[in-house]
Write a structure and sequence with these properties.
- There is one protein chain.
- By secondary structure, the protein is α/β, with parallel strands linked by helices.
- The protein has four domains: about 70 residues, Phosphorylase Kinase, domain 1; about 260 residues, Rossmann fold (3-Layer(aba) Sandwich), CATH 3.40.50; about 180 residues, Dimethylsulfoxide Reductase, domain 2; about 120 residues, Barwin-like endoglucanases (Beta Barrel).
- Helix content is about 30%, strand content about 20%.
- It has 25 helices and 30 strands.
- The protein has a seven-stranded mixed β-sheet with strand order 5-4-18-17-16-6-7, with helices on both faces. A six-stranded mixed β-sheet has the order 24-26-25-30-23-27. A five-stranded parallel β-sheet has the order 10-9-8-12-13.
- The termini are far apart.
- The structure holds ligand MGD (2 copies), iron/sulfur cluster and molybdenum atom.
- It comes from Salicibibacter cibarius.
- This is Molybdopterin-dependent oxidoreductase.
- InterPro entries: Asp_de-COase-like_dom_sf, MoPterin_dinucl-bd_dom, Mopterin_OxRdtase, Mopterin_OxRdtase_4Fe-4S_dom, Prok_molybdopt-oxidoreductase.
- Its cofactor is Mo-bis(molybdopterin guanine dinucleotide).
- GO terms for molecular function: 4 iron, 4 sulfur cluster binding; metal ion binding; molybdopterin cofactor binding; NADH dehydrogenase activity.
């Protein structure tokens, strides 16, 4: 049959009253390509379709992505500013009334000014997030430093990417989450993936992961749980939580023993190998097996496969990073690529699975307490001067370095910080040690929260500002490859909601700092200033214009000028970013977790994600399909553990740590170590596992140890007796 007789005309299959807006998903770092379908009569978003012409995800999306459009016109959207006059209702949903923008702005500026007059500039803080565009992240950093003049700004990437950032900076001298584009992954010969539940958390990477095996290559997975990738892996290294440093040292020991190191590369392009050799000497397969609990032969085989693979990519995620030694873990796994020289060429390298949609860009441009736009250090006078010139301020005015996200919360509890402007984050669910965190939020004199759905954290606010969703604004984000891409506007903001950048410009004017902000009237105005502010920095976006992004399917940073097409592969010339051009192989002695199981708390507790929910769940718990699929949290345990405690599937059980206790339903599965419990963290109030987690911080990244603590379990019936 001729093609035109049988096949549908897919070019013209859309409804005549429909237009398509090319954009990317609102959620994770994959940033899958999608078209939002917009009804041209109502100008409302009515649906979505995947983009087959997007090179990274080629038509693939996950359950969150295909329902993301349902956020825009959801009935729970906040349509107008909300004010609560009765501070005694803090921590509840009660007492909010609708107000005009004028009244909300007046209340905010009055309170901010009063607090700063009484307690100084640094009595105010900004806590932000990276579901925002680069332009919004950039302006948030400028707003804190220039409009509020406070040093206290930090963001939710401290709970997410900061250990990867710290590790890459130490090993390579630069922090770009992936040394190569995702389109290389399926062409490599061996993937060594540690602490990533790729199938649930970056599902649209999976076709590339499976393709490695289909081509005859190998997949090695390190995870205490038998995740979908671990199940199909050639080797599953089922380690005890918190023992990655021993595993990576043990593999390195074997690479040296097997003569799988690239001595010429090590000699020419790295430092630190001799010291590292000394440290890993004792990590024999026997000793490594003793610490990690992995069978010795599996460790030997994994080292053999990685060592002999012509090309290999080491990949990891929060499983290794959300530990008190997350930075060491990152450098220890990165060592494997450096000693074997499997880096700085196509199909070989190191990558972290960046978490949030703009987890990469959002950390580079000034939301982190120690950074200014372009990955510039706030402690470096030359860097401060460069940014001050763009901002039009005296370098003397630039606030100094502040503290990390969790440490800001500690300062709130101590009344050192009195006011909080929270945007794009929900720490009342996602921060560790929640009993303490909620008390700290209650202690604040004044709190503003900007969100588009009322979150558990908004319950602590005095004023709630209605933000727009990702589909009602435009700008760029940087995906997990380091590729700068464009988010497009598909609908006008609903109700009286506004983009965060607009709120900041209007607030700055009312704080008498309009001269630095009033010229920024569109997202594009901010984009222009933002690119200039990054010029000459390590993360240089100057050449990444919106036009070029559109023409090239994104632009990999660094991209320094009009002619530059960007940098998909890092280190092709084997030059790293340390002053001597060499990478650092790090000597990392083993240390344990902040809290190890003992007689009182005999099991490991680890936490993470399911495919149906995103982070604190404030967005996905409202989408009917997603909440039907994953309505509540549960505690995953091995059948042997359930038997030992006399527990049945779906029975309620109490978990207790040194910080809190709460009740979950039992889920029995063989896909976890018997000494370990796992709980997904996407739920609020009494269902939040972070009531129990440990805020032990990594000394470099200040990342809390979400992935390991010690827990005790009680059958509820036994408590009644
Ligand atoms: N569905 C979904 N996808 C998401 C997100 C989401 O909320 N939901 N969030 C996005 C964000 S912001 C992030 S940061 C990423 C997170 O992506 P991932 O890091 O892949 O997700 P997690 O579930 O936090 O943890 C990954 C794995 O680490 C394992 N693990 C626990 N302890 C250890 C350990 O000590 N060592 C090792 N090697 N492994 C360990 C867990 O068993 C788990 O399988 O996902 C992104 N994608
Ligand atoms: N136990 C445990 N805890 C964890 C983790 C874990 O693995 N285990 N993982 C950690 C990780 S990796 C992360 S990334 C954090 C994330 O934790 P959070 O920062 O709490 O992440 P979200 O749930 O995305 O919160 C974003 C909030 O901002 C809103 N929002 C989205 N876009 C915008 C916008 O453009 N403007 C404004 N104003 N608001 C917006 C959303 O509705 C939501 O309420 O959680 C961390 N907490
Ligand atoms: S949540 Fe991540 S994997 Fe799923 S569609 Fe969105 S960007 Fe893609
Ligand atoms: Mo994250």
């Amino acid at each position: 049959m001729p093609k035109d007789k049988f096949f549908r005309d897919i070019e013209n299959m859309h409804h005549p009253d429909e237009t398509l807006v090319k954009t990317h998903c609102s959620y994770c770092g994959m940033q899958c390509g999608m078209n939002l379908r917009v009804n041209t009569k109502t100008n409302k978003i009515i649906g979505v379709e995947p983009r087959y012409d997007w090179p990274v995800t080629v038509g693939k999306m996950c359950p969150k992505g295909v329902t993301a459009y349902q956020q825009t016109n959801h009935e729970d959207r906040i349509l107008r500013p909300l004010i609560r006059d009765d501070a005694s209702l803090k921590g509840t949903k009660e007492g909010f009334r609708e107000a005009s923008w004028e009244e909300a702005y007046d209340k905010i500026t009055d309170n901010f000014k009063q607090l700063q007059t009484r307690y100084g500039k640094n009595s105010l803080s900004v806590f932000s997030g990276v579901s925002m565009t680069n332009e919004k992240c950039y302006l948030t950093g400028k707003f804190a430093r220039v409009a509020l003049g406070t040093k206290y700004i930090d963001y939710n990437g401290r709970f997410c990417m900061s250990s990867a950032a710290g590790g890459f900076l130490r090993s390579f001298g630069v922090d770009r989450g992936s040394t190569l584009p995702w389109t290389d992954i399926h062409e490599t010969d061996c993937l060594f993936i540690a602490g990533s539940n790729t199938a649930d958390c970056h599902p649209t990477s999976m076709f590339r992961v499976w393709e490695v095996q289909t081509r005859g290559g190998y997949l090695i997975v390190a995870d205490p749980r038998e995740t979908p990738i671990a199940r199909r892996a050639d080797i599953h290294l089922d380690l005890r939580p918190g023992t990655d440093l021993a595993l990576a040292n043990g593999i390195l020991h074997l690479l040296i023993k097997n003569n799988d190191t690239d001595d010429a590369f090590v000699e020419k392009h790295t430092n630190g190998f001799e010291e590292t050799k000394e440290v890993v000497k004792s990590f024999t397969p026997e000793y490594t097996s003793e610490i990690t609990g992995i069978e010795k032969d599996k460790i030997i085989r994994a080292a053999h496969i990685y060592g002999k693979a012509p090309n290999a990519i080491v990949m990891f995620a929060r499983g290794i990073e959300q530990q008190r030694k997350g930075v060491d873990n990152v450098s220890a796994y990165t060592n494997l690529a450096l000693v074997t020289g499997k880096i700085g060429r196509p199909k070989a390298g190191v990558a972290t699975f960046t978490g949030q949609g703009n987890g990469q860009g959002g950390r580079e441009h000034g939301q982190k307490s120690d950074l200014l736009p372009g990955y510039r250090k706030i402690t470096d006078p030359e860097n401060v001067k460069a940014v001050s010139e763009v901002w039009g301020i005296d370098p003397e005015e630039m606030p100094e370095e502040g503290v990390s996200a969790y440490e800001m919360i500690e300062l709130m509890a101590q009344k050192e910080i009195r006011g909080l402007y929270l945007l794009c984050s929900n720490p009342a669910v996602s921060a560790p040690n929640l009993n303490f965190v909620k008390q700290a939020l209650k202690t604040l004199d004044f709190m503003v929260c900007s969100d588009f759905f009322i979150s558990e954290s908004a319950e602590f606010a005095d004023v709630i500002l209605p933000a727009v969703s990702w589909s009602e604004d435009e700008g760029t984000v940087t995906n997990l490859e380091g590729r700068i891409i464009k988010i497009n506007k598909a609908q006008e903001p609903i109700g009286e909601s506004k983009p965060d950048w607009q709120m900041q410009v209007e607030l700055a004017e009312r704080l008498d700092r309009g001269q630095y902000f009033t010229h920024l009237q569109t997202a594009e105005d901010i984009a222009d200033e933002f690119r200039r502010a990054t010029k000459g920095g390590v993360a240089d976006y100057y050449g990444a214009t919106w036009d070029k992004i559109d023409k090239q399917d994104g632009v990999f940073w660094p991209c320094i000028d009009e002619k530059d097409t960007g940098t998909p592969h890092m280190f092709l010339d084997k030059t790293f970013y340390h002053p001597d051009g060499k990478a650092k192989i790090c000597a990392l002695p083993y240390r344990g977790a902040g809290e190890e199981p003992d007689g009182d708390y005999p099991l490991y507790l680890t936490t993470g994600r399911v495919v149906y929910h995103y982070l604190s769940g404030n967005q996905t718990r409202r989408i009917p399909f997603l909440s039907d699929m994953a309505p509540e949290p549960y505690v995953e345990m091995h059948p042997d553990t359930a038997r030992a405690y006399g527990l049945a599937h779906e029975e309620a059980v109490r978990l207790t740590t040194r910080r809190g206790a709460t009740v979950f339903k039992v889920k029995i599965t063989e896909a976890i170590r018997p000494d370990t419990l796992f709980v997904p963290y996407h739920y609020g109030h009494e269902e939040a596992i972070n009531l129990l987690t440990n805020a032990a911080l990594d000394p470099i990244s200040r990342m809390p140890e979400f992935k390991v603590c010690a827990v005790r379990m009680h059958k509820l019936e036994a408590e009644k007796v």
